[in-house]
Structure formats: C-alpha cells, structure tokens
Design brief:
rod-shaped, four-stranded antiparallel beta sheet, 0% helix, single chain, five-stranded mixed beta sheet, mainly beta
Amino acid sequence: VYAEFRNENGSMLGMDDGTLLNASYVFNLTVDTDGPTITDYQISPSKTGYGQTITISALLEDLGNGVDSAWLNITYPDNTSVIQAMNQNTSSKWEYVFNDTWQWGDYNITIYANDTGGYLSNQSGILQIRASASLNASTESAEYYPNQTVRLTSPFSWWNTSWNYRVPVTL
C-alpha cells in the first residue's frame, strides 16, 4: 500500500515531535464490523394482564461507529407483527412503551440495533399476557326438576348495561 502523507495544501504531514511521516510508519487500523452491543435488555413487567403498559428498554453501545437506530419487531400471539422505533433517552439507553396487550399468550419481542456503519445486532425476549376470570352466578329458581332448563343469572345488580360482553347463559 502506498500512502502520501500530505495535508490539503500539499505539505508533508508530521508527528507531534516534528518528524515527518514516511511510508515506513506503522499504523494500527481497527475495522469495526460488529453491530452495537445490546446489554440490560428488559421487558418490564415480563408477565402481566390485558391492556397493561409495558416498558421495553436496553443499553445500546457501539464504540466504533456509534448507534444509529433501534427498533422492535413485536410478534403477537396470533403471529401478526409490528415494527416500532425505539426512543433514545440517554447516550446509551433506548426505550419503547407498549400497551397493545389485548391478546392472551406470548409476545415475541426482538430488539434490533444498527450502527452508522450499517452493522446490525439483535436480541429477543418474551412478554407473557395472562388473565384469570371469576364467575358469580345464581339460578332463577331454587329447585329444578329433571329435563327442566336452568337459567343462570347474576346475584348482583348489573351497573354497566352498555357493556356488550355480558350475555345470559342457559344450561
């Protein structure tokens, strides 16, 4: 490799001690071909119920090129997915707040980090959405005979009649 050590005016470039650079000078070149380092990747909380707010965060660092962007691929339990850009809160902390948690099951959340050199890193985690329900019911009559229809009703007066998911059950 041939290199000329001249500045924009054509003058020879020199060292701090006044000596001129020459072709035998040894240079150490470091080529960054790695994507950003992803540490402290958190999905918080990692297990919760419907409609709750989830904070997804990570520390992203790239000593060579610097972190250019970060995004999430969120795959829902029904296998649909969305891509969401993360926000950079500090020089290395990136975060996204997610609350579209209306499907029961496991959400696969993969973080991608890209540096200014175009190198990519990723890491995956799981968000679990679970829910439990309880049922309070009473019968319309105290006694039933064989082959009679049993109608269940609520033992409580219903306060929200506009809620469309309340349905009568007949056994």
